[in-house]
Amino acid sequence: MTVSITATVNPANNRVEARTPNAHLVSMDSDEPEGVGQAAGPKEVLLASLAGCTSMDVASILRKKRQAATAYQLVVSGESAAEHPKVFTSIQVEHRVEGDVSVQALRRAIELSATRYCPVNAMLSAVATIEHRYRITGADGARQEGRVVVTGPAGSSVP
Prior knowledge:
Layout: E1 6-10, E2 15-19, E3 25-28, H1 42-64, E4 68-80, E5 88-100, H2 103-117, H3 119-125, E6 129-137, E7 143-152, E8 155-157
């Protein structure tokens, strides 16, 4: 499958408007002084792509397992190398779920996304270590959290 993106660049301020094959617009900008900082930077969009990819997988798997999540949020952060091209060296993904969801079902859904289904996770894992964690707040208000899986250039490990 080939995906083609068309990007238009404003040379005066580095603003980029990328258009997907379905005509969806993704705006990007750089910080001052090269840009005006009015849109996400390319590396931020990359982390957002990871959040979107893995969350869609996990939400779909939880629905199939008949897990009653009432809220689902991801927090994704990345550490960059000090030297150019300043690639991400490590990324942390925290899946925050509320509702009547079993820990086992959530852990398995996250593991499947990170190790099998999410192509963005697979691509980034070629150069960066990605740690997936979860935090569940149950219907009764009880909280549980933990580490699920770490993927990276050396493969994946499930604690």
